[in-house]
Design brief:
mainly alpha, two-stranded antiparallel ribbon, two-stranded parallel ribbon
């Protein structure tokens, strides 16, 4: 079995007995149906907080976030200033890219990133490595996730947490988040190379594939993690993100299944396909097991 907690085979059989059996496939299709209705109805009313672990909704998590950021500032501030200078000297435009995202309880906030594109006005809702015009330093910043460093200010402002689901664009939100979005998270580790992987999806399939397969996978992975998250699991994710200990196995499985369907001509219309259903039934349970591994260890 793999020693990597984010790939198939890292789930201990002893842990399996601790989780209650359920029909994951039906739950996955329910998530898909909710996603497909995202433009037909407004965000749902504020649901109960039973979906979050005690750590995820505790004030201690907020204290932990602020303490980590403040302790790291002496090291991070010189890096921020150096990156800002390079961004300013290598391309025209502002140093920071500002965008509206959805935070806890549906509150809209402005997220901060270092600008990595020549023209932010041409930003696509679904970003791939091939549909954006990057600045000379942009690909490097994105590869090493350095463009996300300004979000430490979002953490101090209370908009975000260090660990949580990535903040969504308003058009990608199915229901109001119960917790603060995070700089890193369970889905962030699995989908760390999402832009390069999605670049292999045909353009006419990209939007539908992202909404019907990728977003449900991310939502399920993050929801399962936040329901079991502890101080130690958050700490582990932070360390793994800093050390870049991520693996694309699950994402490669999703993309590989889609590409196989394209090669055999299975797609005749931009709608959910048998390839999408196969990806949900085979890959998402793997993501669920990986999340359980993180939380229990």
């Amino acid at each position: 079995m793999s020693a990597n907690p984010y790939v198939s085979g890292s789930f201990d059989s002893n842990d399996r007995s601790q989780s209650k059996p359920r029909d994951s496939k039906n739950e996955i299709f329910a998530v898909r149906d909710a996603a497909s209705a995202r433009t037909e109805a407004p965000a749902k009313a504020l649901p109960a907080r039973k979906g979050l672990s005690s750590w995820s909704r505790s004030s201690a998590k907020r204290v932990f976030d602020c303490a980590c950021v403040l302790a790291a500032l002496p090291l991070i501030v010189p890096v921020l200033l150096a990156i800002a200078l390079v961004v300013r000297l290598t391309s025209r435009g502002p140093v920071l890219f500002l965008q509206k995202r959805v935070g806890r309880y549906g509150r809209i906030f402005t997220i901060f990133k270092f600008r990595t594109m020549v023209d932010a006005a041409t930003h696509h809702a679904v970003t791939t490595a091939g549909n954006q015009q990057f600045t000379p330093i942009g690909p490097f910043l994105r590869k090493w996730k350095l463009d996300e460093l300004p979000q430490l200010l979002n953490v101090l402002l209370g908009d975000m947490s260090l660990v949580g689901p990535r903040p969504k664009l308003p058009e990608h939100v199915v229901q109001r988040p119960l917790c603060r979005p995070g700089i890193t998270g369970s889905a962030t580790v699995v989908f760390a190379r999402e832009e390069a992987a999605l670049n292999r999806i045909p353009k006419n399939r990209l939007q539908d594939y992202y909404h019907s397969v990728v977003l449900p996978a991310k939502r399920r992975l993050d929801a399962e993690y936040m329901a079991r998250a502890t101080f130690f699991s958050d700490l582990r994710l932070i360390v793994d993100s800093v050390m870049r200990r991520w693996d694309m196995a699950a994402l490669e499985s999703l993309i590989g299944m889609e590409m196989l369907q394209v090669q055999i001509g299975a797609h005749t219309a931009p709608t959910a396909s048998p390839g999408d259903e196969m990806a949900r039934s085979l890959v998402l349970p793997q993501l669920e097991r990986d999340t359980a591994w993180i939380s229990w260890n």
